[in-house]
Amino acid sequence: MLTRQGSTKNKKHPPGKLIVIDGTDGTGKTTQAALLIKHLRQEKYNVALADFPRYGLPSAYFVEQYLNGRYGKADTIDPYAASLFYALDRFDAQKTLKKQLAQEQIIVSNRYVTANMGHQGGKIKSLLARRRYFRWLDWLEHDTLKLPRPDLTIILHVPATIAQRLVDRKGRREYIRRKRDLHESDLEHLKAAERTYLEIARRFPKFTLVECVENGKLLSPAVIHEKIWTIVHKII
C-alpha cells in the first residue's frame, strides 16, 4: 500500500529519491523500511512508504492467487508469467510514485522490481538465460510500464535456512490465511532466490548488500538499521 507519512515543518527538500529495501523472505524488510522512515522523518525529510505487493487491492489479485498455490508450485510457474503478476500491481501504483517524486519526497519501498529479479530470476538455472530475463524485466517494468528507477536498492541477506525459520515467527497472513506462502514454504526456492539476490548485488552498481547475520546469529534490527543508514545518508 502507498501511504503518506505525515508532514513536519522546516523539511529538507532534496530531489525526490526512491530507496528500495529488498531481500529474501524473512529478512526483516518491513521492519527496516519502518525504521528508515522513522529516521528520515526525525531528520525532517518528506517521506512516503510504498509497500509491494499491495495485498487486498484488485491489482494484487493474481499475486495473491499465485502465492496461495492456485496456479501450481513455484517451480512450475514460468518466471516470465509470474513476473507479470507483480509488475502490473506496481504499474497500478506508478502515477502515485511519480507524483511523490515530483513533490520531492523520499519514497522508501518495501520490495520493488528487485523482488522479481530474485524470486523469478532464481527459477532460471542458466546464467545467460537469467541475464536475458533481467534485461527483459528491465524493459517490461521500467521501459514499458514506466516505473521509476530506484536511486538505491538495499538487499538484506539472511541465509535461506535461517530466513525460513524467521518466517515461522510471523503470524498468519490474511492474503494466504497461514504462515508460509508459496515461496516461503519451498526451501529450495528460497535458496535459489538467495543466490540470485547475491548475484545481482554483485552485478549492478545501485544495489548494495547488507549482511544481517554474523557468526551464525541474526543481528538486531537496530544494528541492521545503522548499516542501512550509513549507506542511505550518502545519497540524500
UniProtKB/TrEMBL annotation:
Coiled coil: none annotated. It comes from the Bacteria. Pfam families: Thymidylate_kin (PF02223). GO terms for biological process: dTDP biosynthetic process; dTTP biosynthetic process; dUDP biosynthetic process. ATP binds at G23, T24, D25, G26, T27, G28, K29, T30. It catalyses: dTMP + ATP = dTDP + ADP. One of its GO terms (cellular component) is cytosol. Keywords: ATP-binding, Kinase, Nucleotide biosynthesis, Nucleotide-binding, Transferase. One of its GO terms (molecular function) is dTMP kinase activity. Residues 21-205 form the Thymidylate kinase-like domain. Residues 1-22 are annotated as: Disordered. Its EC number is 2.7.4.9. InterPro entries: P-loop_NTPase (IPR027417), Thymidylate_kin-like_dom (IPR039430), Thymidylate_kinase (IPR018094). Phosphorylation of dTMP to form dTDP in both de novo and salvage pathways of dTTP synthesis. Belongs to the thymidylate kinase family. PANTHER family: THYMIDYLATE KINASE (PTHR10344), UMP-CMP KINASE 2, MITOCHONDRIAL (PTHR10344:SF4). This is Thymidylate kinase. It comes from Candidatus Uhrbacteria bacterium RIFCSPLOWO2_02_FULL_48_12. The gene is tmk.
